[in-house]
């Protein structure tokens, strides 16, 4: 056991253990989200060796695109698995939905109110740009950004990408190289939707969507599902789960005023005139809170799964998680440090580049991948000797999360 | 047929137009978009967490700022965006840092693209036609590169 594992393990009696992880392959299957969710849930239960009848708490990640069943996802999955009397909850936190669901399960277990919790996220997505809900809604920033500006999600990603170019000298080739790396990582991932190598030339030859980002720099939207089974440390001991992967931190902090980085779907930032600039940006704060909760630092991390909605955004996250200094992520990438086998592999799963985004499932999928990585079960994409992993994502309206797992 | 702002109370329309903001009467924190009944919000609650102000003054923001970042829309955005031309013509977008300490997103003035922009470059506010409907031209604020 490394020093880090000992440190993270200090509070082992109070920690929550990941007993099982399971997924439904990402794709464009066009079937009902419930089917994907139940598939992932059963896979996670099977992986854990725990019977469905032992689950006393189910948390579903809400999907806003699938009608009432999606709004009450916890109930929907519990019912589809066959009512077993478990308590239920449903979480919605945009891209951080899965992490908030995991946090709800963790809290009940830590409070001693539950022993075995099942967390499930699943989605069925439409084609093309994610558009706002129909109707005239002049008080809804998500509607206004389209009506007044024609501001799509990729356009926000492009603003961040362009800043890296003008401030740090990033190039379109650098961004393409992130895609090349992640495409290679995902080649052997049975859950990935896109399992095909990409070259820098492929990326640069794909049409520009929002300058400087090409089509292949931007992640697609997918159908998919992911699930984890969480248990108390005591339950794990009683059931012979030795040396399990533990949840060392779940950060779901919100921004601190003033939020000075323009965020989807807003048309402006807070003003920093009254208080000055904040100590950390929102994304930096998400990771920092996770490190503080786990009692470790970025130097202790072996592997990271970050939200690469665009190739350039992966570079932002590497810096936001303090895996290198501001403006240094391109150097890390060029040196091969973020490739499997490098100093700090990023997105060994293949990331959103290979999966496409299935919003309520994605943060759980990140946790599944790290679980397999820390167990040494990530066949064909294993980060050798990984003991500590971190996830990160950020979505609309002050939602974001970072989860640290340790073994 | 007259030209009317596509949204009420967000910007003025004189030759040298300004964005309109709400400034907290207690702590002076400025917010854009402003409190606007047309946009469904009549009440003001100061967003500075250290302030419980609920009264505001309508103020004009500086006309000039510097580019925080920029991009464009090579494909037609989905509704409720209304393309002013058929076939669709790409347009540029800029996030602009104002002296009041906030960044405001807007389209870039007609005839200007990403090649005319640079992080840190100076731009100024103009008002142009966003689309035309049964009432006439609907106008919107835009950022125009300042050529030295
Ligand atoms: Zn105030």
UniProtKB/TrEMBL annotation, chain A:
Signal peptide: none annotated. InterPro entries: Thiolase, Thiolase-like, Thiolase_C_2, Thiolase_N. One of its GO terms (molecular function) is acyltransferase activity, transferring groups other than amino-acyl groups. Residues 286-404 form the Thiolase C-terminal domain. It comes from the Bacteria. Residues 16-233 form the Thiolase N-terminal domain. This is Lipid-transfer protein. It comes from Nocardioides caeni. The lineage of its organism: Bacteria, Bacillati, Actinomycetota, Actinomycetes, Propionibacteriales.
